[in-house]
Structure formats: structure tokens, C-alpha cells
Design a protein that fits this description.
Length: 120
């Protein structure tokens, strides 16, 4: 009898799921989505490249001429790059819909911005 009453309660209870993708759940604080670089702040030290366990970050050049190549398909979304950055130039975004079929679309380039570039 208890089984029947429990079944009836569950039958008329409000659904606990969202109608994704039409309804989206708010991401929690400190969610670790895709890392994003602020190249105005980045000093090109390479700390993020060295600490990345998935080898998802490659840096060409250093300091003012740094270009960061982020390979999203290799990223573990651990946040160690953001934690290691000495100038807080890396933040973890709230993006979570990152799946794709083509790995070329999962490669992001961040080039250092100089004062001359800003004037243009």
C-alpha cells in the first residue's frame, strides 16, 4: 500500500528537470567554463602554459609579443591556469555549451595588444 501512495505522490509532483535548451539553469559561483585571456593585462610569462596538465595552452613568443593558442579540445577545465596567472589575466567563463565536431573550431588565438594597436 505504501508503494502505491508513494507512486501517486510522485506522479503529481512538479518536475525537477528543466526544459533544456529552452530553459537554462544559472551557473553556480566559481563555475569553471572556458578560460578567457585579457591580453591587455597578460605579461606573456608563460606560467599558464607550464602549469596546464592537459597541455591545452601553447604560447608563441614571450612578453609583449606573446600569442596564446588555447586548444579547447585538450582542456580539463581545472582552472589551474587562472590560479597560476600572476596578474589575473585569465578568468574562467560561464560558458558550458562547448561541444563540437570539428577540433579546428576549438582552437582560440589570443594576441597581445600593444598601445599602438589600441590607437588604431
Amino acid at each position: 500500500m505504501k508503494l502505491l501512495t508513494d507512486a501517486l505522490k510522485e506522479l503529481f509532483r512538479k518536475a525537477s528537470t528543466l526544459k533544456y535548451p529552452f530553459e537554462r539553469k544559472e551557473v553556480p559561483k566559481d563555475f569553471r567554463g572556458r578560460p578567457v585571456w585579457d591580453m591587455k593585462t597578460c605579461i606573456g610569462c608563460g606560467a599558464c602554459e607550464r602549469i596546464c596538465p592537459g597541455e591545452a595552452i601553447k604560447m608563441e613568443g614571450r612578453r609583449d609579443e606573446a600569442t596564446i593558442i588555447y586548444l579547447q579540445h585538450r582542456c580539463l577545465f581545472c582552472g589551474q591556469c587562472a590560479d597560476t596567472c600572476p596578474v589575473d589575466a585569465i578568468s574562467m567563463s560561464e560558458e558550458y555549451e562547448l561541444a563540437g565536431y570539428d577540433t579546428d573550431s576549438m582552437i582560440f588565438y589570443y594576441e597581445n595588444i600593444t598601445e599602438e594597436d589600441e590607437e588604431e
